[in-house]
User: Fold these one by one.
Assistant:
Number 1:
Amino acid sequence: MKLRFCLCLACAVFLLTGCGGGPEYAAPPQNVALSAVTSETIAEELVWSGNITPAETARLSFKVAGVIEDIYVHAGDAVTAGQTLARLDAGDYEIQTRAAAAALQAAVAQTEHVLPAQVSQAKAQLDLTLANYTRVRELYAAGAVSAVDLEEITAKKTADEAVYAQAAEALNIGRAETERARSAYDMALSQLAAAEIKSPWDGVVLQVVAAAGESTAAGYPVLALGQTAEMWAEIALTDAETVGLTTGLPAAVYVYGPEDTWRGSLDEIGALADSATRAFTGRIRLNNADGRLRAGMIARVGIERRGEERVLIPAAAVLHLADGDFVYIYDAGSGAARRRPVETGEIRGDKVEALTGLAPGDQLIVEGQFKLRDGEQVTPQ
């Protein structure tokens, strides 16, 4: 029994001597990867529901009153510039045009033939009389003719001068009458042309509000026409949104009908709010050369607005515990990893926003952080 106790004691001493008698070895510093913390300007996307409208809209009407003879188009029809869209019964305007043409023709005949001939005749007679007057006055001075002869030729000169002046005045009046007749004819032609509505540009008929056989007044809308080579995506903006937005911001417009996205920019921000909705209209111009966009389609409009400077870090660098989130940063002075509490915000892809705890220039440990302890020595790779 005593021998067994001695052997156990000897083994214990041996083991204690073997475990504690040799030199101690410290574990080498852990390798880590670093990433410098930087700030980024984040583009913020704002989203609205919008609708597609023509870039230009016109309510077309006749410039003169009358009875509508025919309307040649229907809502949804594509039209080209100069195409006749509707016509009045133009019988009365055709009569007025023919009468004005006849009056102009008569006035032109007077001023170009009759009145000039009368002026020429009166001028020739006056020239003859003036020659006789000069001759008689010389003879009278020489005593060859009597005073009665001089008085007679003087009276004739006065009369012929009056006739010539009247003929010249008649020609001037005739010319003025011709201009009035020409203006009346031009007006008649204009009214005859105004009995038709022609398309001012390529587009599509949005609405027809009249029918053949109806009487219409000058200027009363007959149909609405939209120019569709370009379209608007319209959105309703609140007061605050108009303050935060500026024209020129990039926009992506997804249209549900064609199921496609058009790119553009915010072209207009209305200066006057709608009286009913109190919203301001924002417009994004879209190219519609292929005609796929139609008025009234619903769209999703996203506009990118330049945001604030924010600190974004790799999401994998953040460690999560019950008492909060933290990261490790590298302290170059001591060569150690330092634990730093952080408050995180919005996740953007593989990065997360660091709201507090980090500043640009910090050396963030992005690899090897999972086995670290606060203050542990590390080796950057």
Number 2:
Amino acid sequence: MKKNLILAMGTGYTENDLAPFFNSLEQSNFKGDICYITREQDAPALSNFSKAGNLKIHLFRELRPMKKNRIRKIGKFIDSTCTRVPLLGTLSKKFRERYAFKNACAHLRRHFLFRDILGSLAQDYQNVMMTDVRDVIFQRDPFDFDLEQDSIYYFLEAEHTRIHSCEKNSWWITEMLGEEALKRIGPNHISCGGTIIGCPKIMYEHFKITTESITNNLRCCNRAGIDQAPHHLIVWDRLVPNIHVVPNRAGIVLTMQTTKREHWSITDEGVILVDGEKIPNTVHQYDRYPDATQAILARYT
């Protein structure tokens, strides 16, 4: 049977920053591969984490972007020109992608790198998880649930959240996709784009759609978090096949920021529980709570 793969990217992290992620993964019984993308100057921070699965480090050269205001001004001009002259937009696709990659913040650049890596490695793996790093831990193998073949799993935030009720998510969608998109998908729950699990083929399609959205909206290419806009479009407009939308408290991925305090607790051993009994495989955004952060750091560092 093929192995599973975790895709992650981090820049500027120290060994202490990475310890909860990698040490918890080592203790989770995960047996697959980890593809971690970082800059050459950040690679030494990974030297003590080789036991956390089969760690494969991919280095990328960070290009020096322009100043933010200039990126947005030039990007807006390119966007409007390509809209007025569709043929020019088609012919300039490679140029626009190079511009997006060079000037994107790391948060958005990772989608291009993940897409390209999966394009060459997809046939080698059973399933893939894309995850944030700094605020993520693993309490069990993240793939330890009833995974259907040829599917993709998106994970919701707390059940009371709605896209149109969140100032940031509403702004991201309006800025990148327009008011009509917000009206259409705004009533849906918020899904966090920082943790996704699926088969390599569909994950590749997810990254392809995301990078196309960034490339077609160059004025947005350095706005961290705006990848939530195409993420929600993919989820709620069903732009990829075989989508599963998983509730926040199902025990697979717990996204903590919007989760009411009454729905999660901490054991004396530093384990995060959902509803007093479930141990979620993956915990995301624990650093929003000082007591959770203290318990996790004590357990994993």
